[in-house]
Model the fold of this input.
Amino acid sequence: MTTYKHTEKYDLSDEHYDEYDNALDDLADRINSLNDRLTTSNIENMISESRQKLDKWRSDCYHLIDQFYEQKCREFDRHVAEIIDKHRKEINRIRSNTATLIHKQDILPRDIDYITTIISQLEHDINEIKEKYFHINIHSLEINDNLIEIKRTTNICNSTVISPPYKTMNYLDDSSKILCTNERYLLVHLNSNLCLLDKDLNIIKEKFWTQGYIIDICWSLTLARFLVLTRNYLYLIDESTMSIVRIQKVPKLSWWSCTCSDTYLYVTTKDWGSNIYQFTLWPSIQLAKRWQSPQTCKQNETINNIIYNKEKLALLIYNRLTESQIIELRISTTFDCLWSLNLDIDYDSRSIRCCLLNNDEWLVIDWNTSNLYHISNDGKLKSTCDYNSSPSCATMFGTNMLVISTIDGINLHKL
Done:
């Protein structure tokens, strides 16, 4: 290791010599210190946290693949059960008809021909069950460099980070401003339709929506469905068929926000001292627990938004006594508070929403003031910035794209 030390003398007066000599010695010490900080052991310590993130990403991907595999196995088992049940019902019908003919005194040749034809057709169908019904198309899992980006970290609200949108889509009517992604598609309410958009904001599929104003949307990996929440009902949306099914086991209440873990669905009510209803997702959607005030929030508070992430729940809470907005991170099983941050928003507005960012950080969107609040994963306010055209909702689309809905339309930003 090279060590720098000042030794050369200059022809200076004694008065200035000591001053310059001491300054140069200090600089040499600082250079040596910087060199020491770049030793292998220190570098290993500095990058260990990032390597842990890579390990966590790999573990999460394995978990995601396992969940997807299990979901497809369940779908296949249901498909097989439906086919077998269909053929079994046909066999029972033929058996019943045959038994009737056996006891019939005047059996005609056409009766025998009819039963023979049906049995032959059924034999043919059963022989071809595997080829006709049990075929599975499997596509290779695509991996590209954009899944992991290695770069310097910055504040999301830095003006150099949120650059002007590179893609926009305008509304043509009073569409809901709620957004939700499942990593492949973005689901939005656009011009009276539910629309699936790709990462270039192209409409892939759409379905006319007549079920009422959309309050919130979340994605369930377990069900492989979007869940769309209206003022009183919750609906399942299949991205493949765009079918709309109302969940019967969710009672008709005044709802406001929803989110999903791998196991549970959480839905909040629109009232003071908001309740949080917890439903199982599999094998069916059933009420598991009802969380009430003061565990959810105080009686003079209401929950504006709820988002699940890694066994934790982020809650946006409005307090009508202090007229303040608070974001809290809770443990999802006990509702114990891990941290709480009082935001500088002093009015009762339901147009406050939260978005999960990379590295378990958060973005709070304030429609009234057009402000974005970037919050660290330990509950500290990192930065605040203005957003041109009042923002309503935001969501990450992959790891490097941020989608923000506004009063005018949808903006797509590269981070």
Q: What stands out?
A: The first helix runs from residue 14 to 37.
